[in-house]
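Need a sequence for this fold. Nothing fancy.
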């Protein structure tokens, strides 16, 4: 039976046994029963690792044990951006063959190097998923005195965070304008537009743009008020250099969020993607909502 190439231990991990009877036991000193489940990541070079061992020893393109190149890429000019690491994965959920774990390894490796950006990464994921309530909770948790987001600090900061991470953590205004170094400098506004989430777009415009108040539907203000969110005051010029209008942000290809919406519209009209996915931005192009208005 193969063992982990990093720690030489069996390819299993201990987890707490699922026991509903534990709730009826009032003895708090009773140790929770544990069981073992498979934890096996088999690389293309045939070396096996525990998932955590692979994360701790990961070397981007090569097996940590034998230094064999474990990446694969489709042929073509976009190969570099489509790097894959295909593995056979066996865990509590069963066996999965030829799973691409490169995005997960890339993300985890980045967070281990820059733990202070964990909330930034979570923010972008919420923007992609369209979870505007989670975005608000995350921003509220950043700082008790972040007056730009609102005074209703009902969300507790995670007690498990390391002190050093807290000292280096980003402010709410920095998180809103964070751009993803792993995905072409995509901002939260780019991510929300690309995934068709208008509720998130309105929220980001409310909190991080100078879009005139009359441009917002009344429902946006009503929902924001119900969630304890208020619009930030206009920044002084010096602050605007540090915290630019979110509509001015461009991704790694020089595109504004409006450029993304325009591309989606064009593909939808050409029937390359579903009409609902692209045409959701019908009426938004050229209105100054997704890009800074042109100067006269």
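Here you go.
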């Amino acid at each position: 039976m193969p063992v982990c190439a990093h720690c030489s231990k069996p390819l299993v991990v201990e987890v707490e046994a699922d026991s509903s009877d534990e709730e009826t036991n009032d003895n708090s000193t009773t140790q929770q029963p544990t069981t073992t489940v498979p934890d096996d990541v088999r690389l293309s070079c045939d070396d096996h690792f525990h998932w955590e061992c692979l994360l701790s020893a990961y070397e981007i393109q090569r097996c940590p044990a034998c230094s064999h190149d474990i990446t694969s890429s489709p042929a073509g000019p976009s190969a570099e951006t489509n790097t894959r690491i295909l593995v056979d994965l066996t865990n509590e959920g069963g066996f999965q063959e030829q799973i691409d774990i490169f995005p997960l390894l890339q993300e985890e490796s980045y967070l281990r190097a820059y733990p202070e950006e964990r909330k930034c990464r979570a923010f972008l994921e919420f923007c992609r998923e369209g979870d505007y309530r989670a975005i608000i909770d995350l921003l509220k948790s950043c700082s008790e005195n972040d007056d730009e987001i609102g005074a209703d600090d009902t969300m507790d900061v995670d007690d498990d965070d390391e002190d050093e991470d807290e000292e280096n953590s980003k402010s709410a205004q920095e998180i809103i304008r964070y751009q993803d170094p792993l995905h072409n400098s995509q901002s939260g506004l780019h991510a929300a537009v690309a995934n068709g989430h208008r509720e998130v777009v309105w929220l980001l415009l409310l909190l991080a743009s100078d879009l005139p108040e009359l441009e917002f539907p009344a429902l946006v203000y009503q929902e924001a008020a119900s969630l304890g969110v208020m619009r930030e005051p206009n920044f002084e010029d010096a602050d605007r250099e540090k915290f630019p209008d979110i509509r001015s942000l461009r991704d790694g290809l020089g595109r504004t969020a409006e450029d993304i919406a325009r591309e989606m519209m064009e593909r939808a009209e050409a029937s390359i993607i579903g009409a609902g996915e692209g045409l959701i931005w019908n009426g938004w192009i050229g209105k100054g909502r997704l890009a800074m208005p042109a100067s006269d």
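For context: Residues 257-269 form the longest helix (13 residues).
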